[in-house]
Amino acid sequence: MKFKKAQTLEQIADLIQAKFIGDANFSVTGINEIHVVTSGDIVFVDHPKYYDKALNSDATTILINKEVECPVGKALLISDDPFRDFNKITKHFNPFISSKESISESAIIGEGTVIQPNVFIGNNVIIGKNCLIHPNVTIYNNIIIGDNVTIHANTVLGADAFYYKKRSEGFDQLVSGGRVVIENNVDLGASCTIDRGVTGDTTIGEGTKIDNQVHVGHDTVIGKKCLIASQTGIAGCVVIEDEVTLWGQVGTNSGITIGKGAVILGQTGVTKSVSGGKTYFGTPISESRDKLKELAHLKRLIKEEKKA
Where in the sequence numbering do the catalytic residues fall? Predict the structure, then answer.
């Protein structure tokens, strides 16, 4: 998430009441999670296991819960609770804006687009040309939808990321300040849920077709011309490359990559990254040919045990 106007290190430190290390006028241009940070961004880290990853990332300001040596060309914000203060920054620069009507006056809707009854369209939404939005679709604030997109009934775009920190008194949610971006010629089935990014975009690539009752987690990027069948659950921060097929009831772990042209057969648990151009099956996942050989071998062993 980029700020509308660059801030100084001192301004951010004053906002969250934190100590800073670095030039008071050091430029801060945004806030992002570790997997999408670029120069100018703030990233937060609150566990020693991930200090090095954050300090050596592309982020140039690190919000951290311990005073450490500051890398050259970077700055530190020292906080007793980086998770809390990351949320504070997100809320300050991207506050929630409530709606007063079913279709916000700030929404931009392209020529030829049809909006069926009982659709909700939030603030600062952009919808392209010749789209068809069926009844009871909910489109949260700041969503971007391209041309020739069809969205079937009861689908929700832009719900919060499922991202929590366990506290002694319960769970704190990481505030979602990102967006959903639906590119041209995408079809979304009925009752799908596409969560927005925490700080970046959840993206559905051009020409992708998604069946009914599919869930896509925060910050996931789905490529072009993919096919995703019913009841598939895709976790957050997944990369699905172009022309991938996921058949029914596939589930994935977070943070993995599915390579271009891969086919994942039904009810497979994608527990790790897999390369493209192959067909996969089973949990834990493996190439379908290998999995079927394993099952055939197991079947023979059972028969032999019964004969013994």
Answer: 218
The SS3 assignment for 295 reads helix
Q: At what angle do helices 9-16 and 82-93 cross, to 10 degrees?
A: 110
Architecture (CATH level 2) of domain 108-289 = 3 Solenoid (2.160)
CA nearest to 214, candidates 132, 157, 150:
157
Domain 2-93 - what CATH class?
A: alpha beta
Residue 116, SS3? coil
Strands 215-216 and 179-182: unpaired
Where along the chain do the CATH 3.40.1390.10 domains lie?
A: 2-93
Phi, psi for 245 (deg, rounded to 5)? -115, 125
pLDDT in tens, 42-78: 999 999 999 999 999 999 999 999 999 999 999 999 9
- Residue 302: which pLDDT band, with cuts at 50, 70 and 90? confident
- Answer yes or no: pTM beyond 0.90: yes
